[in-house]
Amino acid sequence: MPEDSDWEAYKVPPTRTPVSERTTSVPNPITFVQTVFNYVVDAPVTFVREWIERQQAKNKFYYYHQKFRRVPDLSECLEGDYLCFFEAEAQWRRDRMVDQEIVEIVRERLGACKQREGPNQFQNCAKEVEQLAQVTKAYQDRYGDLGVHGNARSCLMKQKHRMMEERKAQANASE
Question: Between the CA atoms of 162, 92, 68 and 138, what dihedral angle is there, to the nearest 10 degrees?
């Protein structure tokens, strides 16, 4: 403000806000309702909640990923042991999901490297490209051509046929 300001035009705010004095002797009903609510509803609920939290603090439950024990492979199951067949099938499905996630993680790493490196991606992301090629080849060798409804038995048969073909090729190469 300029030095020659008109103090009447620009009034200074008061330094303290005046407190209004009570004009009645009747208590405020809002404070009465708040006090009743506090003692009737809030205090018991808070007490019960704190008691439950104390009980839960004694028995701490830590959540981790569910860990399954490894079960025998389908080739190790006895004939007619349907429970073993079921467990091996469930284990195979879990392994397939884990392998799918591994492929996806490696693919995401490659994408992040390409994004980070930009035009230099071919020379700086060669390791990730090689890793993705290895992981996808391993996944394709194990689960490829099984389709959506593939199961542990068909995967085992595929593995058996692949091993037989490799032995044949090795025998033909040695002759």
Answer: 50
Are 149 and 137 in contact by the 8 Å Cβ rule? The answer is no
Q: Which DSSP state fits 151?
A: -
DSSP letter for 120, please: G
Q: How far apart (Å, rounded) are the C-alpha atoms in residues 116 and 13?
A: 58
Please answer whether residues 156 and 75 qualify as being in contact, where contact means their C-beta atoms are separated by less than 8 angstroms. Answer: yes
147 is written with which tokens? 């389709």
pTM for the structure as a whole: 0.58
- List, in order, residues 6 or more apart from 87 with CB less than 8 Å away: 71, 72
Average confidence (pLDDT) over 118-134: 94
**Alpha carbon distances (Å) from 82 to 73, 88, 89, 156, 159:** 13, 10, 10, 17, 22
pLDDT tops 80 at residue 142: yes
**Closest residue by Cα to residue 162 from 140, 147, 135:** 140
How far apart, in whole angstroms, are the C-alpha atoms of residue 141 and residue 145?
Answer: 9
